[in-house]
Amino acid sequence: MERGAEAAPGHRVISHLHRSNHYDVYDVFSEERACRCVAKVPIPGEEGGRAARRLLREGALLRRLAHPHLVRAYEVIRDPRPAVVLETLTGETLSYIIDTTPRRLSLREVACLGIHLCSALHYLHRHGVLHLDLKPSNIVSERGFAKILDLSIARPPGRARRGAGTLQYMAPEQVRGGGLLSPATDVWGIGAVLFEALTGEMPFNREVEDEEEPDTYEQLERRVEPVRSHRRVPAALARLVERCLEPDPAQRPAVLELMRKLEPFAG
């Protein structure tokens, strides 16, 4: 949509921020709030399909749940087209920070990131919700606070639908489908994010483009590479991240255990 168009009633477009496979995200001016907000809407042609239903479910979740490390939703709009109005975040995505910062994140920064993610995921799990799509592009650093975005595929624990998630960050049970999704599935996501934050490398399928169907899913074929093969970090921290990426969900740490063991590295 062009500048000045209504992304949703009373929310005029300032600029287009991002397009994913299913959604457009706009910087908008809210007439009711007299400030800038973010509007997330289905891409053209998706207004009445699964993407629209996911968006409305995501908006309802974010309106119901409130946590310092989750993006805040102000409003869920159904007509004339589905839209969710969100708070404006002034930071950068973790993926942008990893790609553009000359130095790697410090151990303290990575540990704080992990603690923030654990805090938010513990809260979601207490409310019966799994995120299932943790990745650096879904995390914004806002004045030193991690904020998690995009609950579009969030759902309660239960049987997995094959391939729901992002290739490089999906746990084996997500890739296979039919298995049980549990809080341990999100622990895998935390581990994948921390691995990339520490090393600058995706843990799996790093050569595959987003739109490609891979020949093999590496998380089904091999274990994660040792963190210390990419960067010299304390052995205890490396092993903690690698435990999050255990193929067997029962071998991964619980969220609060992970949080507690990250605390010494945060200072």
Automatic annotation (TrEMBL):
| Protein keywords | ATP-binding, Kinase, Nucleotide-binding, Serine/threonine-protein kinase, Transferase
Gene3D superfamilies in alphabetical order: Transferase(Phosphotransferase) domain 1
Name the Gene Ontology molecular function terms of this record: ATP binding; protein serine/threonine kinase activity
What does the record give as EC number? 2.7.11.1
Q: Which InterPro entries match?
A: Kinase-like_dom_sf, Prot_kinase_dom
In this protein, which residues make up the domain named Protein kinase? Answer: 11-266
Q: What is this protein called?
A: non-specific serine/threonine protein kinase
Query: Which species expresses this protein natively?
Result: Rubrobacter xylanophilus
